């Protein structure tokens, strides 16, 4: 199946990126720990990272791909590429103005993004400096997202899926090679972010050239198609990016909590992002062009089938991942981060936030899978309405729960609002006749839940049995965690095969035939 092949391509490369991301974060934890420099950098990194996820993994692609697919199907390659070039030109000039504005106004903007830093002048100044260095990244990643949308529509997923790998390599190089030479390790990381934007842009330009595509920059004009693109984009930016917006809200509120709270949430979210990136983003990225083509061609039944299979594939991985992270949050955080400046107390605080984030993991993935059902039909109003309500719920819950659970309350509020978002998106699609769970999906999801529950219990017992190695030397910790991961994968795979939660042999054969 081409759909599975595309999911595997994006998911596989995303997995490589996430592994490198863990290496990056291990180095960050060792050099920065969870102190004021770490808090300042994570606030500064939140801005470009937010735009990276929003553009490369959500809003812009959701607005651009349906229009570009329509131009390609109805008017041919030349007209489609002309639209892409015009969109690039408009995007470039708009973002240049945005970057200039933020560079000038960054000290004032920091009072909004991290109001709690105002009481610590050193941390506030560092956050402003780091943000000014990293913010131009949004210009490059936005253009990268557009180029990636062109490639994905042409069924070329690998180059775009590899761009986060380049980001992580740049940050690892900056930290390993220049951390001691720079004023602080945070400065080295900030310059690594800026350099990564240039590297990613050049990478995708080369990938487009291999496909015979050169997107030149004409004089920017607000054509009918460009106005339609902008009309779709801004609502989708809130609708598709509600999870990312919730994380920004968490940063704003966490800046009011004791030093280290922002860092705890960052490290926990990084672990939580592994299954979200490998599963949710991979399935959503592969699903949107497919749904867009099916909707444009009037293939309603095929679109329903694609939506159901996407949900099935996503939950098959997301449910056990959530169960595992909730059960094993402390060993995971301890093995990955507890060294150098990152203490055992930091690990415990981060693990509690990770367990809370993991409660919402299936919901985060479902949002990525359900949103294309709206975007493929150029409907952005419904997701933004749901997204705004979900954000309001997140803010209210955060302010209530932080009084009792500190930073863990913020993670729990984010998870709760994500479930609200996913349920409302599903109900909206169902009412419009764009989502109907078939018998296979209902049967397999019930069995996935059972397998995931058994997995959680088994991991808890195995974790107790490996308590000694998990508290031993670095080598013993990594070995014990590897045993848990491999045992969990084998157990869940066996349970899924035995119960019929998924026919792994059938999936392998269909994927193998396509590759052959």
* Overall average residue pLDDT: 82
Estimate nothing, just give the exact number of structural domains: 2
Given as residue ranges, the uncertain stretches (5+ residues, pLDDT < 50) are: 508-516
The string of secondary-structure elements, in order, is HHHHHHHHHHHHHHHHHHHHHH
Please bin the fraction of helical residues: over 70%
- The structure class reads mainly alpha
Number of helices: 22
How many strands, what sense, and barrel or not for the largest sheet?
none
SSE layout and pairing:
Layout: H1 2-32, H2 36-56, H3 59-75, H4 77-113, H5 121-134, H6 137-153, H7 158-161, H8 163-178, H9 185-210, H10 224-239, H11 242-254, H12 261-296, H13 300-327, H14 329-337, H15 344-359, H16 361-375, H17 381-405, H18 407-431, H19 439-465, H20 467-470, H21 474-499, H22 504-515
Helix pairs in contact: 1-8, 1-12, 2-5, 2-6, 2-9, 2-11, 2-12, 3-4, 3-6, 3-10, 3-12, 4-5, 4-6, 5-9, 6-9, 8-9, 10-17, 11-17, 11-18, 12-13, 12-15, 12-16, 13-15, 13-16, 13-19, 14-15, 14-21, 15-18, 16-18, 17-18, 19-21
């Amino acid at each position: 199946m081409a759909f599975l092949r595309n999911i595997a391509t994006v998911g596989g490369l995303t997995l490589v990126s996430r592994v490198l991301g863990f290496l990056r974060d291990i180095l960050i934890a060792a050099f920065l720990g969870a102190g004021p420099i770490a808090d300042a950098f994570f606030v500064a990194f939140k801005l470009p990272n937010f735009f990276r996820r929003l553009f490369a993994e959500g809003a812009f692609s959701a607005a651009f791909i349906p229009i570009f697919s329509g131009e390609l199907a109805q008017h041919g390659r030349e007209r489609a590429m002309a639209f892409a070039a015009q969109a690039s030109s408009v995007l470039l000039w708009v973002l240049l103005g945005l970057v200039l504005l933020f560079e000038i106004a960054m000290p004032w903007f920091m009072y909004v993004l991290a109001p709690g830093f105002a009481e610590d002048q050193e941390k506030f100044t560092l956050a402003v400096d780091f943000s000014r260095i990293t913010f131009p990244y949004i210009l490059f990643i936005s253009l990268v997202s557009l180029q990636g949308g062109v490639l994905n529509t042409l069924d070329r997923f690998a180059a775009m899926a590899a761009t986060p790998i380049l980001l992580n390599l740049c940050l690892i190089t900056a930290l390993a090679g220049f951390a001691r030479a720079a004023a602080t390790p945070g400065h080295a990381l900030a310059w690594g972010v800026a350099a990564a934007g240039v590297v990613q842009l050049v990478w995708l330009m080369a990938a487009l050239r291999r496909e015979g595509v050169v997107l030149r920059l004409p004089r920017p004009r607000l054509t009918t198609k460009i106005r339609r693109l902008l009309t779709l984009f801004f609502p989708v930016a809130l609708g598709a990016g509600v999870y990312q917006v919730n994380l920004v809200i968490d940063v704003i509120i966490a800046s009011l909590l004791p030093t280290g709270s922002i860092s705890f949430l960052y490290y926990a979210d990084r672990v939580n992002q592994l299954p979200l990136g490998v599963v949710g983003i991979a399935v959503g990225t592969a699903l949107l062009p497919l749904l867009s083509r099916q909707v444009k061609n009037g293939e309603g039944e095929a679109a329903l089938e694609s939506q159901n299979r996407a949900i099935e594939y996503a939950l098959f991985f997301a449910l056990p991942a959530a169960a595992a992270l909730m059960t094993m949050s402390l060993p995971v955080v301890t093995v990955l981060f507890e060294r150098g400046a990152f203490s055992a107390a930091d690990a415990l605080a981060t693990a509690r936030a990770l367990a809370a984030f993991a409660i919402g993991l299936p919901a985060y993935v479902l949002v990525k899978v359900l949103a294309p059902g709206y975007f493929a039909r150029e409907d952005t109003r419904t997701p933004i309405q749901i997204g705004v309500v979900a954000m309001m719920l997140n803010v209210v819950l955060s302010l209530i729960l932080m009084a009792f659970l500190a930073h863990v309350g913020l993670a729990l509020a984010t998870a709760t609002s994500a479930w609200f978002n996913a349920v409302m998106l599903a109900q909206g699609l169902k009412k419009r006749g764009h989502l109907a769970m078939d018998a296979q999906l209902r049967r397999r999801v019930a069995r996935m839940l059972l397998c995931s529950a058994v997995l959680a219990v088994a991991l808890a017992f195995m974790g107790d049995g490996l308590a000694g190695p998990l508290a031993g030397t670095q080598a013993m910790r990594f070995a014990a965690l590897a045993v848990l991961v491999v045992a969990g994968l084998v157990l869940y795979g066996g349970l899924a095969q035995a119960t019929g939660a998924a026919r792994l042999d059938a999936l392998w054969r269909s994927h193998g035939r396509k590759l052959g």
